[in-house]
Design brief:
The structure holds 2 protein chains of 2 kinds.
Chain A: H1 11-19, H2 29-46, H3 48-51, H4 83-118, H5 120-135, H6 138-149, H7 153-179, H8 183-190, H9 195-231, H10 243-250, H11 259-286
Helix pairs in contact in A: 2-4, 2-11, 4-5, 4-7, 4-9, 4-11, 5-7, 6-7, 7-9, 8-9, 9-10, 9-11, 10-11
Chain B: E1 13-24, E2 34-42, E3 46-50, H1 57-65, E4 73-82, E5 85-86, H2 92-101, E6 103-106, H3 110-113, H4 120-131, H5 136-149, H6 155-159, H7 168-180, E7 186-190, H8 198-215, E8 218-223, H9 226-232, E9 235-240, E10 243-249, H10 250-255, H11 260-267, E11 287-296, E12 308-318, E13 323-327, H12 334-341, E14 349-354, E15 357-358, H13 364-367, E16 374-377, H14 391-401, H15 406-419, H16 436-448, E17 454-458, H17 466-483, E18 486-491, H18 494-500, E19 503-508, E20 511-517, H19 518-523, H20 528-536, E21 542-543, E22 548-549
Parallel strand pairs in B: 3-8, 3-9, 6-7, 7-8, 13-18, 13-19, 16-17, 17-18
Antiparallel strand pairs in B: 1-2, 1-4, 4-5, 9-10, 11-12, 11-14, 14-15, 19-20, 21-22
Helix pairs in contact in B: 4-5, 4-7, 5-7, 7-8, 8-20, 14-15, 14-16, 15-16, 16-17
The chains are: A mainly alpha, B alpha/beta.
Chain lengths: 295, 561
Amino acid sequence: MTEIPTSRASAFHVLTGLFALPAGARIGAGPTIAALVLVAIVLSALLAPLYVPYDPLAMNAMARLRPPSEEFLLGTDPYGRDIFSRVMTGGRVSLLIGIGAAAVSVAVGLMIGLVAGFFRTADGVIMRIMDSLMAIPAILLAIALVALNGPSLGSVIVAITVPEVPRVVRLVRSVVLSAREEPYVEAAIALGSSMPKILIQHLMPNTLAPLIVQGTYICASAILIEAILSFLGAGVSTEIPTWGNIMAEGRSYFQIKPGLIFWPGLLLSLCILCINLLGDTARDLLDPRMKKREG
Amino acid sequence: MEFRSRDLSDRPQVLKIRNLKVGLSGRPDAAPVLDGIDIDIRAGETHCLVGESGSGKSVTSLAVMGLLPKDALEVTGGIIDLEGFEITAASHAQMRDLRARRIAMIFQEPMTALNPVLRVGEQIEEVLNMHTDLSAAEAKARTLDIMEQVHLPDVQRIYQAFPHQLSGGQRQRIMIAMALVLDPDLLIADEPTTALDVTTQLQILKLIEEMQERHGTAVLFITHDMGVVAEIADTVSVMQKGRIVERAPIRELLTAPREDYTRKLLTAVPNLAPRPARAMPADTPVLDVARLEMTYGGGGWFRPSEGVRAARDVTFAIRPGRTLGIVGESGSGKSTVARCIMRLIDPTGGEVRVAGTEISRLSRSRLRPHRKHLQIVFQDPYRSLNPRWTVARSLCEGPINFGTPRAEAMARAAELMELVDLPRDALDRYPHQFSGGQRQRIAIARAVAMKPDLLVADEAVSALDVSVQAQVLDLLDDVQARFGIAMLFITHDLRVAAQICDEVVVMQKGEVVEQGAAADVLSRPRHEYTRSLIEAAPGRHWDFANFRALEGAPRHQGATA
C-alpha cells in the first residue's frame, strides 16, 4: 500500500516541470537558432549605448546622406545622423514597447479574465465590453488612443495594450471556465476557502502556460504595431529613435538611401520571426492537445 | 447460481495466443508489459479476461486487433493465431481486411467510438461498403436487419438518428450491430458495460449472449467486474501485472480458486447481503433534509420554460455515526442532492439543516463558517486534488481557512496521513506520485482534517479497483467509527451500498421511490424500480468472498468483509 516513488519534488521541480520537455519531445534546430538570434538582438539593443560610435540624435550638417564607410558603418541619414547608432539604439525602445505591452496586457487580461470566468454575474457584462473592444480594428483604436493621450512612450504602450486585452481575457476566461468545474476547486469551496484564494491559488496557475504562449505573440505584434504607429506618425515622438520612426523618416529618401528602411526593417522582421517561432514551440510543448498523434 | 457450463471441446479453435510478449518500443531492457500470455478461445465460447487496472487486459486486446500504439508498444515475441492466420506478422493491408470481417471490437464508451456528425445507420453501412461489394439497397437492407437483431426499436427512425440522440444503451447496441454486421469469428468486448447503468448492462450482456448463440462467435470479454464474469463467462483468465496468474472454467474459479491473487480479488468483491445496522443513537440528526427540490433552467424572458426537475421532495435525516446511502442510476438526481447539501449548487426549494442550522438559503459569506461541519469526497481521485499542490498543502488548506496556525495544521496533517495509512514523509509529494487508491485516501484525510459532522461520499469508490475499493470502504468505516461522523454515501452500486449503509434511499428520475433500513430495502424491496435494480445486479446470487452461493434471498446479517 505504501509503494510510492521516492523522488521528492520541490517547488523548484514544479516550476521547471512546467517548462520541462515531455518525454520524447525534442526541440529542433529552428527554435534553437531563433532563440540565439533573439538573444543576440536583445543584447545588442540593450548594450547599444556602450558601443555605438555616435549619439543617435546628434546631427551633423557636414555629413548628410553619406554612403557606408569606415567612419559611418551604415552611412548617415539626411540630417547627418549615424544610421548604425540610430538603428541599434532604436531597438531598445521597440523591444521595451513589445515586452511592456505584452506584460501589461497579460497582467490586466489575467485579472479581468479570472473574474469573468469565475463569477457568472460579472461574466456577461465584462465579455460584452470585451466584444465591443474587439469589434474595433486594433490599429484604429491604437491611433485614437495615442491621439487622445499624446505621443509619449507610456501612451503608446497603453494604446497597443488596450486592443490586446480582450484576447487575453477570452483565453483566461476559457481556461477558468473549464478549471472551475474540477473537483479540487469544489473541494476548496467545501473547505471554506475564500473566493480570492481560490482564484489566485487554484485557478490562476492553470492559465500560466497558455498565457506564456499568448504573451510571446502579443510581444511580436506590439513591436509591429509600434512600427506601424510610428510609420503613420502616431507613435513615439521622433526624438526617441525606434525602428518604426527611423523607417518613417526614411520613407521619402528611400530611392537614394534604402538602408534607412532596410536595416531597421531587417531587424524588426528577424525579431518578430524569432519571437513567433519560439511562441509556436512553447505552444507545442505546453499544450498537450498539440502533441503529435500517431495513427 | 447457474454458471455457463457448456462443453465446447468439439468446437473449432478460433483464437490461439501462445507466449505473447509485448514490450515498450525501443527499450528492450524495460520490464515487459505483457509477459508470456496464453489464451485459447473456441467458437461460441466466452472467455473473460479479468484483472485490476494496469494488469494488461486492454493491451492484450489491442495486440489481437493489431492496434498497439506505434512508437509506444510492440510485440516482442510469441504468436497470435486467428484460425491459422498469424496476426503478429500481418501487414497493414491484411489487418485492415481482417478487422470487421474476422475480428471486431466494442469499446467501453460508445459515445466516443461513434462519429458524432454521421447518422448511425450510415456508420454501420460504411463497414459494409468498405468490406463488401453489396449494392446500396442490399447494404441498407442488411443494416436494417442487423439493427433489428440487436433489438433496437423503430429501426427506420434510429437509422436516421445521430449518436447524441440515442441513449447509452442504444449507442452500445449500435456498436454491437456494427461489430457483428460482417459476422466475425471473434468479438472483443473491452469493458462494454462499464459506462452503463445496471439495468442497461443486463440487457447488453443478454444481447451479446444472444448474438453469440445466433452467430457462433467467440467472445473475448474484458472486464474488472467479477459479477459480470459470473454471469457470462465460460472460462476465465485472471491477469496481474502482464501475466495470466490463473485460468479456469468459471465454476472452478469461483468455488476453488488456486492462486492467492485470485482469492484476494474475489474476497474483495462486495455482495448484496446488507451489513448489520449500527445502533440507532438517541441524538438529534446531524443532517436533516426536508422537501429538498432542485430545478435546473426554467424561467426565460420570452418563453418561460418548465426547467428540469433534477430532485423533488427529497426528505431524510442522518444521525451521528450512521451511514445513509442514496442509490439510483445515472440521471436519478442522487449527485444533485449531494451537491445541494454541500451548497456547491443552490437548491430551489426545501430545507437542509446541518448541525441545527438551516443552510440552504444562507449567502456565500454567511455560509462559510458552517462549511467545516460538512465535507465531501469526490469520485475521481485524479481530479479531486490540485495537481500543483503538495499533499501537505492540500491537507492544511481547510484548517488554515478556519484559523488554525500553520504549524499546528502541519502536525495534524502528519497525524492524518498515518490515520489513512500513508507514510508521513509522503506529505511533501505531489498527487501524481500516488496511485488512485492512495489519492482517495488523501482526499478522505483532507475531508477529515476539518473534523466534520457529516461526510458526503459522492461515488467515492466507483473509480477504484475492487481490492482498493474494499480498503477504502474499510477506511471510511474506521474513520466513521473513530470520530462518530455521519455519512451520506452516494453510489450506483447496490453491492457497495449493502456493505456500508444502515439506511438506503432509492431515487429514480429525481424522486425518492423507496427509503428505509438497508436490510429491508435490499432484501424486501417494495417498489418495482428497486426490485429491477436488485435483479440487474450482476452476480447477485454468488457470495464471492466465501466462494459459495448466497443462500436463498439475501440474508439480513453477516457477510461483512
